[in-house]
C-alpha cells in the first residue's frame, strides 16, 4: 500500500465537524451501481473515521463522478484524469482498490 497510508491519520478525538463531514460522505457514497456501493461502504467502514482531511476532500471529488466513471477509476480500468491528479487522490484510489 505504501503511500496510501498518508490518506489515513491515527485515530484521535471526535471532532464534530469531521464527524459531520464523514456522515455527509457516507450518504453521498450511496450509489446507483451496486459495485460502487459495496466498495465505498467497505472502504468507509474500514477507514472512514481515520481519513485525513485531504483524503476526505479527494473522496468528495470522486463522489461527484458518474457511477461508471467512478467504478472505472476504482477498478483501474482507466487512468486518472486531470481531476483525479494529485498525491491525495492517488493515495485514496489505492486504498479504495485495496478495499
Overview of this protein structure:
The protein is mainly α and about 100 residues long. The protein has a single domain, classed as Orthogonal Bundle (DNA polymerase, domain 1), CATH 1.10.150.250. It contains five helices and no strands. Helix 1 packs parallel to helix 3 and helix 3 (about 55-60) packs across helix 5 (about 85-99). It starts with 15 loop residues before the first helix and ends with a helix.
CATH fold descriptor? DNA polymerase, domain 1
The CATH class is identified as: Mainly Alpha
Low-confidence stretches: none
Structural class: mainly alpha
Task: Report the end-to-end length measured between terminal Cα atoms.
Answer: 11 Å
Shape: globular
Q: What's the CATH architecture name? A: Orthogonal Bundle
Q: Note the beta-strand portion.
A: under 5%
Number of strands: 0
Helix content: 55-70%
Rg result: 13 Å
* Main sheet: strands, sense, barrel: none
Q: How many structural domains are formed by the residues?
A: 1
CATH 4th-level superfamily = Flavinator of succinate dehydrogenase
What is the H-and-E element order? HHHHH
* Average pLDDT score: 81
Tally of helical runs: 5
Topology:
Elements: H1 16-28, H2 34-47, H3 53-62, H4 67-74, H5 87-98
Please give a quick description of this structure.
The protein has a single domain, classed as Flavinator of succinate dehydrogenase (DNA polymerase, domain 1), CATH 1.10.150. Helix content is 58%, strand content 0%. The chain has five helices and no strands.
Amino acid at each position: 500500500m505504501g503511500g496510501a497510508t498518508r490518506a489515513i491519520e491515527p485515530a484521535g478525538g471526535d471532532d464534530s465537524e469531521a464527524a459531520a463531514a464523514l456522515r455527509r460522505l457516507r450518504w453521498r457514497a450511496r450509489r446507483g451501481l451496486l459495485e460502487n456501493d459495496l466498495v465505498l461502504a467497505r472502504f468507509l467502514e474500514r477507514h472512514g473515521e481515520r481519513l485525513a482531511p485531504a483524503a476526505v476532500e479527494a473522496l468528495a471529488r470522486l463522489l461527484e463522478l458518474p457511477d461508471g466513471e467512478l467504478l472505472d477509476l476504482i477498478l483501474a480500468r482507466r487512468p486518472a484524469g486531470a481531476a483525479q491528479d494529485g498525491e491525495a487522490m492517488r493515495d485514496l484510489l489505492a486504498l479504495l482498490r485495496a478495499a
